[in-house]
Amino acid sequence: MSREKLRALGLDLPLLPTTSVGSFPKPDELQQARTRWARGLISRDEVERLERRATEFWIRTQEELGIDVLVDGEQYRGDMVTYFAENMRGFEIGGFVRSYGNRYYRKPIIVSKVKWERPITVSWWRFAQSLTAKPVKGMLTGPYTVMDWCFNEYYPDRRATCLALAREIRKEVEALIEAGARIIQIDEPALSVRPQELPLAREALQMVTDGLPAYFISHACYGAFEKIYPEMLALPVDNFDLEMSNSNLDLLEHFKRSPFTKDLSFGVVDVHSHVIEDVETVVARIRQGLEVVPAEALWIDPDCGLKTRTVEEAIAKLRVIVEAVGRVRATLA
Amino acid sequence: MNLSLTNAGSYPRIGDTPELQILRQTLARFDRQEVTEADIRRAEDEMVRRAIAEQIEAGLDLVTDGQIRWYDPISHIAGKLRGTKINGLLRYFDTNFYFRQPILVDRLVRERPILIEEYRYACSISSRPVKPVLTGPYTLAVFSLVERMEYRDLERRVEDYATILAEEIADLAAAGAELIQVDEPAIVLDGANFDLFAAGICALARAKGTARLALYISFGDVSSFYERLQDLPVDVLGLDFTSSPQLIDRIAVEGSAKALGLGLIDGRNTKLEPEAEVAAALERLLPAIRSEVAYLNPSTGLEFLPRDRAFRKLQHLVRIGLRFKR
Known about the structure:
The structure holds 2 protein chains of 2 kinds. Chain A contains 11 helices and 9 strands. Chain A is an alpha/beta fold. Chain B has one domain: TIM Barrel (Alpha-Beta Barrel). At the A-B interface, β1, β2 and β4 of A face α1, β2, β3 and α11 of B.
């Protein structure tokens, strides 16, 4: 079903397409430039020049490694929610809030009606796609997660906030499709938090994707998916990108009890560990994935964005994925 | 009755200015092996000092150390015990915060006291009394993964965590803590385990000596088992009215034999609640509490807010609370 959809969109992908979730680490020079920019020492143009250079680096790196579906690496983003809040109307960017350990993000505050004013990610997608013949995913954060990761001082409740965001975020999806994106990933890591709100998340995603000609992926991670499985399969996307390795592939047991009916982007390396998995480990994980999802429907990637790793660690983890997929493909042919 | 203004646990460990980011920087430099653990300790001390100073400046009567040294509410305790190893991230209730799950690989053993030094340090720099805060046995047990066979039984996990936390409570009481707060949010996930949860609390209560024990429950509705909370051998019950709003009416009518920690100020949203609404709730609740003291505090720890907003929340709380202080 989804393979047909991909072909209809002009995409002919190999079995077990390799991809990434979205973010890659920023090179030191960009990291330092962002700090200097925050202190007012250099211009935004200078930072953007380095962001473009870093994006080129990651596109080239993914091509050299042999990844099938590329991402732009999100070198221009600070954070997956704050970035969109900064570029839409209705938000005030709050101070730092801790997300875990020693990681923090600037949690936005919704202070007035949210409004999409102009394309946010489209020029970055265009730039990244201009550097490669491989498909580059359009990437954005979904309405449910933006709602859940912002303070709300304006809308009466979570539902009103979420649906208002959905209406506006759809415009970004339309702009990406108009620019030529055929695979669009809508990140919804907050999905599993409140199982009773799954219908709301579904309704919001429906508003975002309804009738639009693209292959939709939704990424989610670090939640209790067993609580929303199999109900989550009703979401209007073609592919779920799930963190599996950080939780010992526990989800596979649930997929055995109740079949996974979508395509699955299967996280085979843990992004929160410095340790580089060996190829055998990743091959074994892919084989476990193949026990519950047919090869036609299985994509392979890391658990989550690799931005918390060093550049070297991120590349090493991707290399292991490509090598492991190569070995498994050879046995499937 | 005396109304005491207090914090419910955590306080932000970071702020917008460079001097408020020393802990983040020091931890990052430690990862790059540029500084030592002693440097981390110094940065933590500094941020604890600032957290306490801000709580006092806002006007609180009773402060916490802001739980600045806590990696998260679970692994700060579980990770320091023999018999555990620390696993991947899991979302902490419905917050935007993630904690690391402990795995129980062997029999749990407390090799040394965990919180006492933190408590002593906080006392040494605070002009106001300090309330130590710890996560309760049931919550630690629920969020622990299990490899060791005997711990597949939740009751065994609660028992062993309770034994260890009772030692912590005894140490804190002996060090002079007058009020010790135990957080047990996990009971909101499954009230059917109330007996197990209660057994853990009873074990802690037996160890409290002359200290008073406050049981705080946030992140969910407790109204279905509220009556049974009143029967537990704790001195103070901390209630999150943002999650259990209908309890206000019930307590106003039924009264409360226990002292209450009134979580009327939302610790998780920046929006300042209308003063008149909070005051109206206090006017109904305070006469219904049959104890010498009640506490007014945010519904949760304040780490879910940016620092400037956390401070503003406390000021807001104090402004309202002062109208009701004798």
